Amino acid sequence: LYFGPIPFTMVAKPRPHLRFSLKKLSFRAILNAPIAILMMLKVGWSLSTRRTAWLSRCGLELSEFRSASSSTSGNVSPSAYKDWQTDALAKRFLEEAQIFYRSTLHWPLVLIVLTESSMQTMTSILTSVLGKSESDKTLRRWMGRGLQTVTAEMTRAYQGACTNPLQQPFFLAQYGHRGPGELDLSNPRWMEMGETAFYDSRRKEAEPLSKPALSREQRTDVEEEIKSLNTFKRDVLSHEWKLLKQMLELRERWKMELLKPYAQIRFMAEELGRRLELGQDMHWLRLSEIESMIGQSREELRSKMKQKIEERKVRFEAFRQFSFPEFVTVSEIETIIQGGGLASQQQLDGQALSPGVVFGEVVVVDNPADAEPSLWPENAILVAEATDPG
């Protein structure tokens, strides 16, 4: 998917796409243009003509991955590595991390590319039928009410566990490898949080984090709605929706399985951090630095790593003062730091999860693990860098 240096910049909204940039036009880009264009056409043609085959392959790979991971990671608990030798634990941690980012993420990435390509096609066709504004609202509604994902099932199970504490052990057994801010390895999983993972729905001040999941009766029959459209593109729309629906639902199943070995990697990192007396600071280290720890004395390691960690924390806090775009290249960072992007504006730029106008006090959440919904004001407006509403 990398086509070489091309004179385009990435634009995040309304969906990530490329835009020609004269500033990035270079002699090297001109030389590489024929090969890059040929590769783009080849990939684009394959995505357009073999989507069903690629989708089937992604589903097959998920089945094989699920079978393989169930025999290795299973439902590993946070305490599973307490009896391991430190060097053996560090080696296993490195092996699992490398396997995860070198091979495990391969087919999910293929599926994401397929999904984005199909989303663009669906959006284009629907816009030609309904217009830009109406097509955006319709597609959001279809994706919210026309899908049956494992994430939605998990949300219903979570709400049930909050209402009935007797369901909590069963929820943790099935979904304990998930959690708030789960893509960040430093955030705890639900099985680590235990009872604190659930809000008490019986308390008035404890408002649920989301609206109740849709029942089957509330779901939208998208295919019937497409049939009712007054357009000759009904059959094409129906075909595109069926493909997109399968991709989106498969994507969520992949995510559910991916996060099992990912949680295992976290548990190993946490145990290493405990032994080296680094705690949560363990997550500030690079894999190469963790590899260099093997066979060295604990005291020497801790003092050396502590210094690096403190430097990175200071640098991290400094970078938080700058307003970076959603996509930024290394060459653009220096310009922003020198004053081309200071976070001086008071206006927040983002996307609402649901349409309408509301009034209330804004609550900004930087870390989901630190969120306390029971302390939020009435009619709070949640603002976050990113969300995964399922």
Report on the structure:
This protein is mainly α and 390 residues long. 56% of the residues lie in helices and 4% in strands. The chain has 13 helices and four strands. The strands form two sheets. The chain has a two-stranded antiparallel ribbon with strand order 1-2. A two-stranded parallel ribbon has the order 3-4. The relative contact order is 0.11. About 2% of the residues have low confidence.
In short:
With 390 residues, the chain is mainly alpha-helical.
Please specify the SSE layout and strand pairing.
Elements: E1 8-11, E2 17-20, H1 27-49, H2 51-72, H3 86-104, H4 106-130, H5 132-145, H6 150-163, H7 168-175, H8 190-193, H9 222-227, H10 234-275, H11 287-293, H12 298-319, H13 330-340, E3 362-365, E4 381-384
Parallel strand pairs: 3-4
Antiparallel strand pairs: 1-2
Salient structural properties:
390 residues; two-stranded antiparallel ribbon; 4 strands; mainly alpha
First and last CA, distance: 27 Å
- If strands are numbered along the chain, what order do they take across the biggest sheet? 1-2
- Number of DSSP helices? 13
The secondary-structure class comes to mainly alpha
Shape: globular
Count all strands and give the number. 4
Query: Mean of residue pLDDT?
Result: 84
> What characterizes the major β-sheet?
2 strands, antiparallel
Estimate percent helicity. 55-70%
Poorly predicted sequence stretches spanning 5 or more consecutive residues = 203-210
Q: Give the topology string: H per helix, E per strand.
A: EEHHHHHHHHHHHHHEE
Strand content: under 5%
Radius of gyration based on Cα positions: 24 Å
